[in-house]
Amino acid sequence: MKEKVLILGGGGFIGMNIAKYLNENRDYKLTIADNYFYRDFEQYFSESDLESIEILESDLTLESSFNKLDKDYKYVYMLASVVGVNNTIENPEEVIRVNTSIIMNSLNWLSHSEVSRVLFTSTSEAYAGTIENDQYKVPTDEKIPLTINNIKEPRFAYAVTKILGESAFLNYSKNFSFSSTIVRYHNVFGPDMGFKHVIPHLVERFIKKEDPFLMYGFDQTRSFSYISDVAEGSVLALESPHSKEEIYHLGSEEEVTIEELIKFVGKLCNFAGVYKEADTFPGSVKRRCPDISKSKKEFGYEPKIHWKEGVEITVNWYKDYFLQEGSSKKDGFKSLEELGN
Ligand SMILES: NC(=O)c1ccc[n+]([C@@H]2O[C@H](COP(=O)([O-])OP(=O)(O)OC[C@H]3O[C@@H](n4cnc5c(N)ncnc54)[C@H](O)[C@@H]3O)[C@@H](O)[C@H]2O)c1
After folding, report:
1. Residue 169 contacts residue 109 (beta carbons within 8 Å)
2. What is the total count of domains within the chain?
């Protein structure tokens, strides 16, 4: 009999790509649980693959949703979460309610299950405050203390829930029979990533012919991680014999300025207008780049796709999408003024 794997939030961008990776590279019986399959999930799998994937439409903020799950998964990936800067700024209380409910429901269920390993997906936002205070180095390793700089600022609500999640998974697994592994993702991108991220926002604005083109946060840096590398890294992290109760940074080691990213996307969109420097959201970290040597050493994580190659694939996907559909389904670009900043 095949071993079972469960992906909570498997209808989302990264979860769906982990499912795809597992389907192509492993031989498990997969179950996907999510409350909202916004993309045409089924187009990514063949008919015969879909026959062996169990798809559960479930609101994981409800404890009762977990009653529908088996108890004997070998691996569980926990990705279900409200994500995105717009969501966090506009509805921070909802981010807190949903993310903490899913974390606690997952842990209560895991405590009474026979699951052996679980991956909790955290974020570089959890340590952004420490970088902002110039208290740690970039590229950043896993030993960095986690800091919230202004607890009153809605923008930090998402990071608060992820810090809670890291602590909760690591501490529950000390007292129960499953082991936890934490990964912190760093700006993951790729085709069909949704509409709440910088690259789809840029393509949408270039297609709408914004000119002058405002370069929000032009002097900030990020490192962009292509989705296939991150999906593989997540699986290698959870399956590693070394990763029980460990934290890993997953991302790319190349630090890129936002200006460089914008101008590269602009070139791919044939923009011939004028660029103008502009400020970004208060609380948005100035630099971000992970040190991934621990992931490389302990489970052979090795990103393969250079950011420019990945950005070109992604921009082409969004150009086609916007030319056909006109605008984003939801979570499209909003200016600072529209978000009330
Ligand atoms: N994309 C990134 O760059 C990034 C960076 C850092 C961390 N992460 C983390 O990785 C994980 C996956 O992110 P993603 O980019 O795939 O986001 P996503 O929004 O595409 O996926 C999250 C999924 O969770 C599901 N979900 C939300 N509320 C739910 C509920 N009540 N019940 C069931 N399912 C629910 C959503 O429907 C969605 O499919 C998240 O936990 C996120 O915080 C992502």
Report:
1. no
2. 1
Q: How far is the centre of ligand 1, averaged over its atoms, from the C-alpha of 270 (Å)?
A: 32
Asked whether residue 333 is assigned to any structural domain, the reply reads no
The number of CA neighbours under 13 Å toward the Cβ of 259 is 10
CATH number, domain of 72, equals 3.40.50.720
11 CA: nearest ligand 1 atom: 39
Q: Please report, to the nearest 10 degrees, the dihedral formed by the alpha carbons of residues 303, 311, 159, 35 taken in order.
A: -100
In short, whether 80's Cβ falls inside 6 Å of ligand 1 is yes
Protein residue with its CA nearest to atom 21 in ligand 1: 12
Q: Is residue 214 part of a domain?
A: no
Asked if omega into 92 is within 30° of 0 (cis), the reply is no
Classify residue 291: in a domain, yes or no. yes
Best residue among 38, 55, 83 to mutate for probing ligand 1's pocket (most ligand atoms within 8 Å of CB) is: 83
- Residue minimizing CA distance to atom 40 of ligand 1: 79
**Domain housing 177:** 4-190+223-253+287-304
Digit-by-digit pLDDT tens for the chain (341 residues) are 899 999 999 999 999 999 999 999 999 999 999 997 777 778 889 998 888 899 999 999 999 999 999 999 999 999 999 997 778 889 999 999 999 999 999 999 999 999 999 999 999 999 999 999 999 999 999 999 999 999 999 999 999 999 999 999 999 999 999 999 999 999 999 999 998 889 999 999 999 999 999 999 999 999 999 999 999 999 999 999 999 999 999 999 999 999 999 999 999 999 999 999 999 877 789 999 999 999 999 999 999 999 999 999 999 999 999 988 876 665 555 655 555 54
4 - beta bridge partners? 29
To test the ligand 1 pocket, which listed residue (6, 14, 314) has its Cβ within 8 A of the most ligand atoms? 14
Look at residues 149, 177, 176, 175 and name the one whose alpha carbon lies nearest to residue 163. Answer: 149
In a domain, 184, yes or no: yes
